[in-house]
Design goal:
269 residues; alpha/beta; Rossmann fold; 7-stranded parallel beta sheet; globular; binds nicotinamide-adenine-dinucleotide
């Protein structure tokens, strides 16, 4: 059995659906106790999920692991601090924080976009990372150990059309990852980021199910396909575990090679 996280306690934000759910379940399978910090307990309809009727905490418990749901809006300091306290109260310690909660507000020309969409991206992605990292760091510094994994996006390393707010918030999250790594490495805290490209979560279900868009997406990646949630959670597990003990301040794309550029594909004869 792979029990790389046996005895560890993790908070995963936005873990009711998508990548967060996949990461929480993978961590629990590796032996961690997991706090699911999310606005809602139910998993989002439209996820590519085998057990959508079960909340993430219920699924982990069914698998024999330990988990609890903490209702939490990551953009609110008090909610995040309460979720952190719940983790300590329930499991006695905190070792890992995954800043995963995020929102995407679709594609709109910047001059027509709304301040509300801009605020949503920055409040959840940037401020959420700010609040949760601060709450966890207070514990990590005292114990001189801890791991932060930020789930960013290829939108933090390149830009996509018609989504200035999301691109900008993700670029900021890269800056936060690198700044935190520089500042807290000396305190024994490792900080890294994963940059997935658009993958099979509810966020992208519509694109995945629209053949013209789906094929365009596939052509844009050297590996020529959509990625799966597990392909992100395995990297998160690696970064959270001792196997990555000297990996620090790294920004790891999980993108099928998209950042390399579009490959040449000869037209079919
Ligand atoms: N899906 C992709 O293709 C993709 C690609 C690159 C990066 N990402 C990033 O990965 C992360 C997860 O995306 P996903 O596709 O799994 O999304 P998702 O929509 O499937 O799940 C997001 C989860 O976050 C929760 N959430 C939203 N706002 C929150 C808040 N204020 N406080 C707490 N929880 C909140 C939602 O309730 C939901 O459970 C996001 O940061 C996203 O930007 C996604």
């Amino acid at each position: 059995m792979d029990k790389q996280l046996q005895g560890r306690v993790a908070i995963v934000t936005g873990a009711s659906s998508g990548f967060g759910r996949g990461i929480a379940v993978r961590f629990a399978r590796a032996g961690a106790s997991v706090v699911i910090a999310d606005l809602v307990e139910e998993t989002a309809p439209g996820n590519f999920d085998e057990r959508p009727e079960l909340s993430t905490a219920a699924l982990i418990r069914e698998l024999g692991g330990q988990a609890l749901f903490a209702k939490c809006d990551v953009s609110r300091k008090n909610d995040v601090e309460a979720a952190t306290s719940e983790a300590i109260a329930a499991f006695g310690r905190l070792d890992i924080l995954v800043n995963n909660a995020g929102v995407w507000r679709g594609m709109t020309p910047f001059h027509e976009s709304s301040e509300a969409d801009f605020d949503a991206c920055f409040n959840v992605i940037v401020k959420g990372t700010f609040h949760a990292s601060r709450a966890a760091l207070n514990i990590f510094i005292a114990q001189q150990s801890g791991v932060i994994v930020n789930i960013v996006s290829t939108a933090g390393l390149r830009v996509y059309p018609l989504q200035l707010a999301y691109n900008s918030a993700k670029h900021a999250q890269i800056g936060m990852t690198r700044s935190l790594a520089l500042e807290y490495g000396p305190s024994g805290v490792r900080v890294n980021a994963i940059c997935p490209t658009g993958m099979k979560t509810s966020m992208n279900r519509q694109a995945f199910e629209t053949p013209a868009i789906s094929e365009m997406v596939e052509r844009s990646r050297p590996l020529g396909r959509w990625g799966e949630i597990d392909e992100v959670s395995e990297v998160a597990l690696f970064l959270a575990s001792d196997a990555a003990s000297f990996v620090h301040g790294s920004i790891i794309p999980v993108d099928g090679g998209e950042l390399l550029g579009q490959p040449h594909r000869p037209a079919p004869r």
